[in-house]
């Protein structure tokens, strides 16, 4: 997509819209550092003050995050996502898991019904990456791979509202996955993920729902027995 020169008029609004479009399209993904100010100024053909105003607007919305001495990073895909992140930080892992259960069980069914060939390929790649990360000493890499798998399943639903909601919960989802992994003696044997990938590929909504129930039930059991 890239940035394009901005027309005179409401310059800041148009710059904000371009930034939001890049974030929504995944060209500036969550966690990524946005280009430095001089590069943005040159690409957009506007002054530094306009770029700074646009960046500040998205910072206030919680979409961008400035890091002193490092630059500005994408924090959320939308102001809705930013609000969900702030709220999820003030709740428990059990509450987040309950929300995940509501979303992911139905998402599994929708993914099996609406997935494309590209979705199936992405889910298969994600479940293989998760499997490969199971026994790695870097648990952060495993957590990231697990979250990426669940986001691939959500993406396969084709529901933009659900995709945005789940993206807003990504930080909370990562927290639940990390907590569960910390208390799970056998991450490689954790059920449901490969079965879910297979069910979605086969277009079997009943099997997909059953697979989601298996990993959600296993996660709930670990959360309930932890110290």
Automatic annotation (TrEMBL):
Source organism (scientific name): Pseudonocardia cypriaca
Q: Gene3D superfamilies in the record, alphabetically?
A: GntR ligand-binding domain-like, Winged helix-like DNA-binding domain superfamily/Winged helix DNA-binding domain
Note the PROSITE patterns from the entry.
HTH_GNTR
Please verify whether the record's keywords include NAD. no
Source organism, top-level taxon: Bacteria
Entries under InterPro entries matching the protein: GntR_C (IPR011711), TF_FadR/GntR_C (IPR008920), Tscrpt_reg_HTH_GntR (IPR000524), WH-like_DNA-bd_sf (IPR036388), WH_DNA-bd_sf (IPR036390)
Upper classification of the organism:
Bacteria, Bacillati, Actinomycetota, Actinomycetes, Pseudonocardiales
Whether tRNA-binding counts among this entry's keywords is no
Q: What sequence ranges are listed for the domain HTH gntR-type?
A: 9-77
Q: Which UniProt keywords apply?
A: DNA-binding, Transcription, Transcription regulation
An example Gene Ontology molecular-function term:
DNA binding
Show the CDD domains listed in the entry: WHTH_GntR
| Protein name in the entry | GntR family transcriptional regulator
């Amino acid at each position: 997509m890239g940035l394009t020169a901005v027309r005179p008029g409401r310059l800041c609004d148009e710059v904000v819209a371009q930034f939001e479009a890049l974030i929504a399209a995944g060209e500036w993904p969550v966690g990524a550092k946005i280009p430095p100010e001089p590069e943005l100024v040159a690409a957009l053909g506007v002054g530094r003050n306009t770029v700074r105003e646009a960046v500040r607007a998205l910072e206030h919305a919680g979409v961008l995050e400035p890091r002193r001495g490092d630059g500005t990073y994408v924090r959320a895909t939308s102001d809705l996502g930013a609000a969900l992140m702030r709220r999820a930080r003030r709740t428990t892992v059990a509450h987040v898991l309950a929300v995940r259960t509501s979303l992911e069980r139905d998402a599994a069914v929708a993914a099996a019904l609406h997935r494309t060939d590209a979705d199936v390929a992405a889910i298969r790649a994600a479940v293989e990456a998760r499997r490969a990360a199971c026994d790695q000493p870097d648990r952060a890499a495993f957590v990231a791979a697990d979250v990426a798998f669940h986001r691939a399943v959500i993406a396969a639903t084709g529901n933009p509202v659900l995709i945005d909601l789940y993206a807003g919960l990504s930080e909370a989802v990562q927290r639940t996955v990390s907590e569960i992994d910390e208390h799970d003696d056998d991450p490689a044997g954790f059920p449901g993920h490969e079965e879910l990938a297979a069910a979605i590929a086969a277009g079997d909504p009943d099997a997909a729902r059953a697979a989601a129930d298996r990993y959600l039930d296993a996660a709930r059991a670990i959360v309930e027995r932890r110290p």
